[in-house]
Backbone:
């Protein structure tokens, strides 16, 4: 016979689970689930979102775009090219192995061999162990962005991966893409790709001060935006991202849900190819195009106000953000510039845009072509799915092409490096500069900023770059896409979301 | 013995169909986009991408790539999905039960509604119920399925909160690896909305088809003769007349399987139903070419199998019909 006391205890446990669990289980839906559990396989938002759940970085961004120490407790610059990180003591991986300096060095070396991440770590020449809890990084020059780079170092359990298989597989299967051992707040207990991922809280999580009370988190990818919103409103999930612009009010006005928004950092632009179309090589024509396109109107009408009109690439908060630059829109001036440039009757041009990459991408392009028609520029617009668009973009297949960019380093120089520096196949600079814009001064200032460690001087350089690009009308700045998350009331996502769009779910608090 | 000959002929036919489909699939894959773009981050250089392309054999000439594919395909390997990182055929087989059960649910709904409704409308031509059914069927034909689906999600999932709006709910794994949603109450509840949405394509069409065929059958000589013989009206209607309306219904039904498969893509996407159709649309978005090609080959096979079944059904419904190719 079972002693009565045991039954009582068991009942208490069952009741306890029944009353506590709902408050601590998070059901959330993103538009996709992570491709792989390997944090080094693909540099994408999905990978970073997952990395912040299973792993912890050396330092991480906070909501003010500053850095919070995580697995590195402090860091100091020894000289221009040397930085030391003190590692947190007593941290254990999910496997039970202690985290050591070797693990961190192993991780950095693995990052340097990953096709997706090696670009970011190119400047880190070596990582060496000073003692059990200290590592030293040598950079190839003075490095103003070493902390930005350190946000990508999520120490991995080297013993665990060495035993199972450490290979980074971009295609085909690998141990690391199916197994994970990190130091993060969650452990994956079940994963059915495309259907559900179940996370349980790491009972040995080092950050005992974390306010997070989510014991179990279930990620269900819901691709279709209306279905995702419906799932939130119906109470099937507690938290969704992204919320499409058309449903913002619905989520905001529902008595049970709330909307959290933030201006984003992804800039959407149109590039004007100066080599393909001689008219676009004329600075006045490019200026006329910028003046003709009413990007504030596009934000208002097409983006439903859910974007920030831009006049430059760097969003507010970035070193290179130049507060003097304001969006330009003046059709009369645009017409005058066209006449001055020798094109009073306009000209014909081609434009290509993706139709499933950025929010409302093809609608923006349609609006832009209509606006250009007003100053006599006849645009032949082609839109296509992103899968077909990128090869066309690589070919520079049209005079005007759309490109959105988010700086992996959260720094202004990254925009110029990829979008506006002179294209150079050897160095990879200007890889996404389909406009073939080239200005030696922009190249010089951008490169100089990469090794300038004085923040004030560096900001001045990057702001000057923005000013030159603005004056030259190097491209058409449209807007920065805003970010939106929807949640059930009581799920305190506003405290854990950030502009990089990787919510720190480990610190998420669910109040009843 | 002609059944065996018939089956062999059909098997050969299936192989040819799949071969042709694979050739078409393979020759259009370059137009689907660049899979590398989906595999790597935005800042990865063209050089690195090209190295990977080389490594994956994507730079080889068409015939080299295709013969490598066929070489593996005859051994049952249709390539490895870029996204799932598992054999494409395994991925499809994992998703197949979900789609099959959805189709089963839809077929159950439209058969159990269209047959009685079609017969009723044929017999009671002028009743008010017939008018309502017929006008609804016009409406049903003209509203696209994704609209029906999204409308139902809003009404029953959000506003009324009666039924779950997405996913498959609790599934039970059967011993032979088949994941079924039929055995749990949650699974059935999840099935209701998607199967109604999917059946909404076929339902109006079948009501109209059965009604038309039935009306025609009721006017034929043998029905009049049966009546003249004094057979009970029930027997005349449901045995003599109805049985003969089934032949065209089965024919159209067999052909409509293709439409049904096409619509599972839409329905599954709206309801986040983890089946083959949703997987296919995702694969197209991700340029997961091995999975795309494997999917269309499997669908080709399903077509051949279904049409073979339809031919068998003919002989059951009407013993005068012989299997194609059999001596009369």
Residues:
């Amino acid at each position: 016979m079972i002693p009565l006391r045991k039954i009582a205890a068991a009942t208490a446990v069952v009741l306890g689970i029944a009353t506590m669990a709902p408050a601590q289980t998070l059901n959330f839906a993103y538009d996709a689930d992570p491709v792989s559990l390997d944090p080094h396989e693909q540099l994408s938002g999905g990978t970073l979102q997952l990395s912040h759940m299973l792993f912890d970085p050396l330092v991480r961004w906070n909501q003010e775009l500053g850095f919070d120490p995580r697995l590195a407790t402090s860091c100091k610059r020894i000289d221009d090219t040397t930085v030391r990180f003190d590692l947190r003591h007593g941290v254990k991986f999910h496997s039970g192995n202690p985290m050591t300096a070797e693990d961190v060095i192993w991780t950095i070396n693995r990052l340097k061999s990953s096709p997706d991440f090696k670009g970011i770590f190119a400047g880190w020449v070596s990582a060496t162990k000073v003692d059990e809890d200290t590592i030293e990084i040598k950079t190839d020059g003075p490095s103003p962005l070493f902390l930005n780079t350190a946000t990508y170092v999520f120490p991995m359990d080297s013993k665990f991966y060495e035993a199972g298989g450490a290979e980074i597989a971009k295609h085909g299967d690998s141990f690391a893409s199916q197994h994970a051992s990190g130091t993060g707040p969650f452990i994956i207990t079940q994963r059915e790709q495309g259907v559900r991922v179940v996370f349980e809280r790491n009972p040995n999580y080092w950050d005992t001060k974390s306010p997070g009370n989510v014991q179990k988190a279930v990620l269900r990818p819901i691709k279709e935006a209306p279905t995702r919103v419906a799932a939130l409103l119906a109470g099937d999930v507690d938290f969704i991202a992204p919320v499409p612009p058309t449903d913002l009010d619905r989520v905001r006005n529902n008595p049970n849900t709330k909307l959290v928004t933030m201006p984003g950092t992804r800039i959407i632009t149109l590039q004007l190819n100066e080599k393909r179309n001689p008219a676009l090589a004329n600075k006045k024509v490019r200026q006329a195009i910028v003046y003709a396109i009413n990007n504030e109107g596009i934000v208002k009408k097409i983006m439903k106000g859910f974007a920030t009109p831009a006049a430059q690439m760097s969003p507010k908060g970035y070193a290179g953000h130049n507060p003097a630059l304001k969006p330009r829109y003046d059709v009369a001036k645009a017409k005058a510039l066209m006449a001055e440039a020798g094109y009073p009757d306009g000209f014909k041009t081609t434009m290509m845009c993706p139709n499933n990459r950025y929010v409302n991408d093809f609608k923006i392009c349609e609006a832009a072509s209509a606006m250009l028609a007003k100053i006599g520029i006849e645009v032949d617009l082609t839109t296509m799915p992103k899968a077909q668009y990128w090869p066309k973009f690589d070919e520079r297949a049209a005079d005007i092409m759309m490109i959105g960019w988010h700086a992996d380093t959260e720094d202004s120089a990254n925009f110029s490096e990829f979008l506006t520096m002179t294209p150079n196949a050897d160095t990879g600079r200007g890889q996404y500069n389909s406009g073939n814009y080239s200005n030696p001064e922009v190249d010089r200032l951008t490169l100089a900023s990469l090794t300038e460690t004085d923040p004030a001087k560096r900001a001045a350089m990057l702001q000057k770059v923005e000013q030159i690009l603005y004056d030259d009308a190097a491209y058409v700045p449209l807007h920065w896409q805003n970010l939106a998350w929807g949640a059930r009331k009581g799920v305190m996502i506003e405290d854990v979301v950030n502009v990089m769009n990787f919510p720190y779910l480990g610190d998420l608090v669910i109040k009843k | 013995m002609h059944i065996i000959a018939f089956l062999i002929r059909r098997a050969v036919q299936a192989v040819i169909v799949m071969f042709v489909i694979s050739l078409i699939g393979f020759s259009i894959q370059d137009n689907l986009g660049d899979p590398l773009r989906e595999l790597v981050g935005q800042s990865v250089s063209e050089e690195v991408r090209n190295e990977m392309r080389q490594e994956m054999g994507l730079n080889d000439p068409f015939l080299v790539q295709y013969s490598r594919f066929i070489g593996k395909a005859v051994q049952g390997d249709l390539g490895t999905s870029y996204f799932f990182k598992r054999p494409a055929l395994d991925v499809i087989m994992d998703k197949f039960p979900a789609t099959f059960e959805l189709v089963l649910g839809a077929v159950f709904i439209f058969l159990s509604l269209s047959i009685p409704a079609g017969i009723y409308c044929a017999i009671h031509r002028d009743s008010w119920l017939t008018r309502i059914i017929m006008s609804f069927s016009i409406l049903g034909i003209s509203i696209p399925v994704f609209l029906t689906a999204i409308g139902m999600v809003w009404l029953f999932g959000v506003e009324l909160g009666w039924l779950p709006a997405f996913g498959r709910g609790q599934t039970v794994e059967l011993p032979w690896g088949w994941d079924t949603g039929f055995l749990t109450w949650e699974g059935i509840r999840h099935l209701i909305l998607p199967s109604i949405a999917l059946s909404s394509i076929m339902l109006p069409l079948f009501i109209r088809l059965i009604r038309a065929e039935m009306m025609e059958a009721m006017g034929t000589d043998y029905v009049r003769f049966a009546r003249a013989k004094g057979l009970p009206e029930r027997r005349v209607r449901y045995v003599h007349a109805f049985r003969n309306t089934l032949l065209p219904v089965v024919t159209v039904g067999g052909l409509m399987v293709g439409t049904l498969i096409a619509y599972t893509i839409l329905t599954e996407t709206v309801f986040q139903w983890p089946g083959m159709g949703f997987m296919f649309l995702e694969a197209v978005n991700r340029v997961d070419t091995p999975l795309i090609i494997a999917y269309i080959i499997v669908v080709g096979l399903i077509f051949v199998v279904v049409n073979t079944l339809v031919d068998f059904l003919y002989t059951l419904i009407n013993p005068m019909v012989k299997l194609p190719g059999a001596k009369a």
